[in-house]
From TrEMBL:
It comes from Komagataeibacter europaeus. GO terms for biological process: terpenoid biosynthetic process. Gene3D superfamilies: Farnesyl Diphosphate Synthase. It is an enzyme of class 2 (transferase). This is Farnesyl diphosphate synthase. It comes from the Bacteria.
Length: 311
């Protein structure tokens, strides 16, 4: 490759990242607006609970999961309103998991997205209740006819989120993570841990867009595989970031995995080996969406963003 060609390729890649970030920012604003609408402030005894729920969900963040829902849904010309509702739902479910994950009984982290964790801003009991309420609300949103007029679509969304977030998904992965502290896990065990704890919800987010669009079974499987591998690349890159980025870059405590004696991709493969594995899985994720052509370019760019990000 000539120097001119290489420079042109780098410029094109940089331009695509700029466009992706602009797209993600626009989607994030739409999702934040939807969460604000779905979770208005109230008076009365439950006001503190609602304030904690809003604090946990409206505190910024990449909105990667919500972006995936909306971007995949757009491939099938699904309703923007319905996609934003599902995106808000998955971001609420994700927020609940972070609120509980930060508790002293779990990862015991005082910092989240550069701000005090919910239990530090409020108190532990309020944080637990806020997480509980966010979890139940995420399913209530999916079951509402405003999300989609087809009961079959709504039921599929509810079932898929339950599968991704329960004992066979995110919560099960958290249990494996806690049990694995201070114990050497194999690469296969680490891969399964993260596939459940992080990957299942990212996979669901992509699949939810296909469900909203009433995609065929074959296409839905392809989208699901894309989400699965994107989730794996995301987590491997996250392990690299935990070992190499600062707390200021991450917006949360850095180096927590090593301090807790957790088995990670970095611990098993080294920083360079983990980064190489992230790129391999990322390429695999891209291969699943070849059938969509240029319409899926943002989803392809998202794969590169996940691997190259610094927070």
């Amino acid at each position: 490759m000539s120097q001119t060609t290489a420079t042109s390729s780098q410029t094109d890649s940089a331009d695509r990242m700029v466009r992706l970030r602009a797209s993600m920012s626009a989607r994030a604003r739409a999702i934040e607006g939807m969460i604000d609408r779905l979770l208005p402030r109230v008076d009365g005894g439950e006001a503190r609970l609602i304030d904690a729920m809003r604090y946990a969900t409206l505190g910024g963040g990449k909105r990667l999961r919500g972006y995936l829902v909306a971007e995949v849904a757009s491939l099938f010309r699904a309703s923007t309103e319905g996609a934003d509702r599902v995106a808000a739902s998955v971001e609420m479910l994700h927020a609940y998991s972070l609120v509980h994950d930060d508790l002293p009984a779990m990862d015991d982290d005082d910092l989240r997205r550069g701000q005090p964790s919910t239990h530090r801003k409020f108190d532990e009991a309020t944080a637990i209740l806020a997480g509980d309420a966010l979890q139940t609300m995420s399913f209530d949103i999916l079951a509402n006819p405003l999300t989609h007029d087809s009961a079959d679509v709504r039921i599929n969304l509810v079932r898929a989120l339950a599968d991704a977030s329960g004992a066979a998904g995110m919560v099960g992965g958290q249990m494996i993570d806690m049990e694995g502290e201070g114990r050497a896990l194999s690469l296969e065990e680490v891969a399964r841990l993260h596939a459940l704890k992080t990957g299942c919800l990212i996979r669901y987010s992509a699949e939810a867009g296909a469900i909203l669009g009433q995609a065929s079974d074959d296409v839905r499987k392809r989208i699901s595989a894309y989400g699965r591998d994107l989730g794996a690349a995301f987590q491997i890159a996250d392990d690299v970031l935990d070992a190499t980025a600062s707390a200021e870059e991450l917006g949360k405590t850095a180096g927590k995995d090593e301090a807790a004696g957790k088995s990670t991709y970095v611990a098993l493969l080294g920083v360079d080996g983990a980064a190489k594995e992230a790129r391999r899985v990322a390429e695999q994720a891209e291969s699943h969406i070849d059938i969509f052509g240029p319409e899926a370019d943002r989803l392809r760019d998202l794969v590169h963003y996940v691997v190259e990000r610094r927070n």
